Amino acid sequence: MDTSDVETFSHSDRQSIKDSIGVRARTESTTVGHDSRSNSDWSVSFRASEGALIRRVDWRMLPLLGFLYSVTIIDRSNMGIARTAGMGDELGLDIGNRFSVASCIYFVPYIVLQLPMNLVLRRFGARNCLTFYICGWGCVLVGMGLVKDWRLLVMCRVLLGALEAGFFPALIYIVSTWYTRAEVQTRIAAFLQASIAISGFGAILSYGLTKIGRVGKYQGWSWIFIVEGLITVGCGILGYAFIPDFPDKNTFLSKKETEIILRRVEDDRGDSVPDAITLKSSLHHLKDWVVWAHAIMYMAATMPSYAGSFFTPVILYGMGEWTQSEAILLSAPPLVACAISAFAIAWISDKTGHRAGFIVLQAVMTIIGVLITCYASQNGVRYAGIFIFSCGAAGNMSALLAYNANNIAGQSKRSVCSGLLVSFGGIGGILGTTVFRQADYPRYIPGTWAVIGAQILMLVLLAAVTWTYSRRNALARRTGIPLEGQHGFLYIL
C-alpha cells in the first residue's frame, strides 16, 4: 500500500468518529426505500470489501502476535526442560522446594504489575511498550543462563515476571478493540493457540541446545536460556516495525479503512472511541462482582495449563519408560493438539454465538485428562491423559477471555478487565507450580485433586455469571434500561 494514503487520527478526529458514523449510517438507511435493488447490490459489495479488509487485518495482526506470544511461552516455561537437562543438579533445585520457589516467584511481580501496566498502555503506545517488554526479558533470559547460584536464578525470575506482566493483557486488549463480539474468540484462539503450538517446537529447540554440552563454564541447560534470550531480543527489535497498535492509532490502514473498522465496532458494542481511563472509572468497574468472577474462572483455567507446561517433561520422565531427551521431545505434541482443539471449538463458538456450554465441555475434558494422567496404570494411557487435559485447559483460556471481552462495553473497562483477568491467570500460575510438589513426585496426586477442585469452582461461577447475564438481558428487554451504558447491548451467553 502506498504510504501516502496512510493517515492517523488526531484527537479531534477520534472525538468526531461516532457522529460521522451515525450520520452516514442514517444516510445509507434512507436510500433503501428509493432503490432497494441497487441498495441490495451495494450491500453485497460492501460486505465483500469489508470481509477482505478484515482478512487483511487478520493477516497483519494475528500471525505476528501469535509468534511473539509463543516467544513469551517458551521463555517462561523452559524451566522444566532446563531442570530435566541438568539445571536441577547444578543449582541444587531438587533440594526441598527450591524448584517450585524459582518457578512461582515469577508470578508475584507478574500479578502485581498487570493492571497498572495495562492502564498506561495507551499513554506510551502499544508498539513502544511491547518492544521494551520483549527486549527487556530477552536480556534477563540471557542472565538466567549465566547464573551459578539458585538464588540468582530466583532474582532473574522476578525481573522476568515484571517485564512480561504487561505483555499478554496488552495483546488481549488490542485484539478485542479491532473485532466485533462475534469474531473475538476465534481471533484470540488463533493467536493464543498458534503461539502455544509454536512453543511446542521450543521443546525441540531446547532439546537441540542441550546437545551443545559443556562449553567453557556453561553446560547445555545454560545455552537454552542464552540462545533463546538472544533470539528474543532479536524478535523485539525486528517486531518494532510491525507490531500493530489500536485501530484509531494504526498506521497500516488508510483513514477510510480505519473508519470502516471503527464503524463495525461502534455498531456492535458502541466503544470504538476510547473513554478516559481514570482511577475513579477503574474503581467503578471493579465494583461489579461479575468482573471478579471472570478473573477467578480464568485463574482456574490457567492453573492446569501452567502445571502442564512446567511439569509435563518431569511427569513423562518419572514414568520410567523414556529418557530425559525423549521426555523433552514428547512434551511438544500435546501443545500442538491443544492448539488444534481450541481453535476448532472457538470457531464453532463464534459461529453459534454461544460461550458457556463450550467452557463446560473443556472443563470436563480437563478433569477427565488429569484423572487419567494420575491414576491410569499404562504409560501410553497416561500420556493420552496429558493430551486431554492440555486441550481442555488451554482451550478454556481463550474461551474465558472471549466470554469476558464479549460482555464489556467501553475501552476503560476493557483495559481494567483484561489486566485483572491476566493477573489472576498469574495466580493460577503460582498454584500450578506449587500444588505439584516434589514430595508427590511422580504422580502428583494432591496436585491432581487441586486441579479438579479448581475446575469445579469454575463451573459453579460460570453458572452464576451466565444466570446473572440472562437476568440482566431479560430486564433490559422488558424495561429498556441500557446494559453497560449502551442502548441495544445484550450479553452473549
TrEMBL record:
<dbReference type="GO" id="GO:0016020">
    <property type="term" value="C:membrane"/>
</dbReference>
<feature type="transmembrane region" description="Helical">
    <location>
        <begin position="327"/>
        <end position="349"/>
    </location>
</feature>
<feature type="transmembrane region" description="Helical">
    <location>
        <begin position="289"/>
        <end position="307"/>
    </location>
</feature>
<keyword id="KW-0472">Membrane</keyword>
<dbReference type="GO" id="GO:0022857">
    <property type="term" value="F:transmembrane transporter activity"/>
</dbReference>
<dbReference type="Pfam" id="PF07690">
    <property type="entry name" value="MFS_1"/>
</dbReference>
<dbReference type="InterPro" id="IPR036259">
    <property type="entry name" value="MFS_trans_sf"/>
</dbReference>
<feature type="region of interest" description="Disordered">
    <location>
        <begin position="1"/>
        <end position="20"/>
    </location>
</feature>
<feature type="transmembrane region" description="Helical">
    <location>
        <begin position="152"/>
        <end position="176"/>
    </location>
</feature>
<feature type="transmembrane region" description="Helical">
    <location>
        <begin position="356"/>
        <end position="378"/>
    </location>
</feature>
<keyword id="KW-1133">Transmembrane helix</keyword>
<keyword id="KW-0813">Transport</keyword>
<feature type="transmembrane region" description="Helical">
    <location>
        <begin position="95"/>
        <end position="113"/>
    </location>
</feature>
<feature type="domain" description="Major facilitator superfamily (MFS) profile">
    <location>
        <begin position="61"/>
        <end position="471"/>
    </location>
</feature>
<feature type="compositionally biased region" description="Basic and acidic residues">
    <location>
        <begin position="8"/>
        <end position="17"/>
    </location>
</feature>
<feature type="transmembrane region" description="Helical">
    <location>
        <begin position="448"/>
        <end position="469"/>
    </location>
</feature>
<feature type="transmembrane region" description="Helical">
    <location>
        <begin position="221"/>
        <end position="243"/>
    </location>
</feature>
<feature type="transmembrane region" description="Helical">
    <location>
        <begin position="384"/>
        <end position="403"/>
    </location>
</feature>
<feature type="transmembrane region" description="Helical">
    <location>
        <begin position="188"/>
        <end position="209"/>
    </location>
</feature>
<protein>
    <submittedName>
        <fullName>MFS general substrate transporter</fullName>
    </submittedName>
</protein>
<dbReference type="InterPro" id="IPR020846">
    <property type="entry name" value="MFS_dom"/>
</dbReference>
<feature type="transmembrane region" description="Helical">
    <location>
        <begin position="415"/>
        <end position="436"/>
    </location>
</feature>
<dbReference type="InterPro" id="IPR011701">
    <property type="entry name" value="MFS"/>
</dbReference>
<keyword id="KW-0812">Transmembrane</keyword>
<feature type="transmembrane region" description="Helical">
    <location>
        <begin position="125"/>
        <end position="146"/>
    </location>
</feature>
